[in-house]
């Protein structure tokens, strides 16, 4: 989605077409609004960097990823910091520098762990499993695959608990209205 607009003349439009479909595919409006405007701008910069990355312009991709990291650091937003380091890992992976990609994925994972950001932990453990497998370090690949499976289950359970809490609130509200 958005790639028809991925020309160097129209990166802003491309970033919008990449950013907003993710909001439509499962992220609730409340979840999107809980982040500050700096975080939203940060995510847009990552998406613009991704457009450059997929067009093969690694230098500009890195420039946008650096800007996103500066914003994440200034906002003290660990989720955004993790996401920025993830982007650097992806950049180095695309360039074929798998060891550097591992380095940045580990950095993103550590920040995600500190922030208790489960989705970031899941994404990075899954990526580390893939990278270590490609580097023929199968022991670490298996270790991170196991961690990613546990995190996936944790995320699923957390979503189920959130859904149950919303249903309980709705049920209580319906009972109050009936009285």
Protein topology:
Elements: H1 11-24, H2 29-33, H3 37-54, H4 58-74, H5 78-94, H6 98-114, H7 118-134, H8 138-178
Q: Fraction of residues in helices?
A: over 70%
Number of helices: 8
The overall pLDDT average reads 79
Percentage of β-strand residues: under 5%
Overall, the morphology is globular
Structural category: mainly alpha
Which sheet architecture does the biggest sheet show?
Answer: none
Overview of the structural elements:
By secondary structure, the protein is mainly alpha-helical. 82% of the residues lie in helices and 0% in strands. It has eight helices and no strands. The chain has helices at 11-24, 29-33, 37-54, 58-74, 78-94, 98-114, 118-134, 138-178. Helix 1 packs across helix 3, helix 4 (58-74) runs antiparallel to helix 5 and helix 6 (98-114) runs antiparallel to helix 7. It is globular and about 65 Å long. The model is unreliable at 1-37 (pLDDT under 50).
Summarize the structure.
By secondary structure, the chain is mainly α. Helices cover 82% and strands 0% of the residues. It is globular.
List keywords for this structure.
82% helix, 8 helices, mainly alpha, 179 residues
């Amino acid at each position: 989605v958005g790639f028809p607009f991925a020309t160097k003349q129209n990166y802003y439009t491309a970033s919008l077409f990449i950013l907003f479909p993710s909001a439509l595919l499962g992220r609730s409006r409340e979840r999107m609004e809980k982040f500050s405007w700096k975080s939203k701008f940060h995510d847009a910069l990552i998406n613009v960097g991704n457009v450059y990355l997929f067009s093969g312009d690694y230098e500009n991709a890195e420039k946008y990823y650096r800007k996103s990291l500066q914003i994440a650091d200034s906002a003290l937003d660990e989720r955004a910091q993790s996401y920025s380091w993830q982007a650097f890992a992806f950049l180095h992976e695309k360039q074929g520098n798998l060891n550097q990609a591992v380095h940045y994925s580990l950095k993103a994972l550590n920040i995600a762990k500190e922030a208790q950001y489960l989705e970031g932990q899941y994404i990075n453990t899954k990526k580390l499993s893939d990278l270590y497998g490609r580097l023929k370090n199968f022991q670490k690949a298996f270790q991170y695959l196991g961690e990613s499976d546990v995190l996936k289950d944790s995320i699923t359970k957390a979503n189920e608990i959130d859904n149950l809490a919303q249903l309980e609130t709705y049920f209580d509200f319906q009972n109050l209205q009936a009285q």
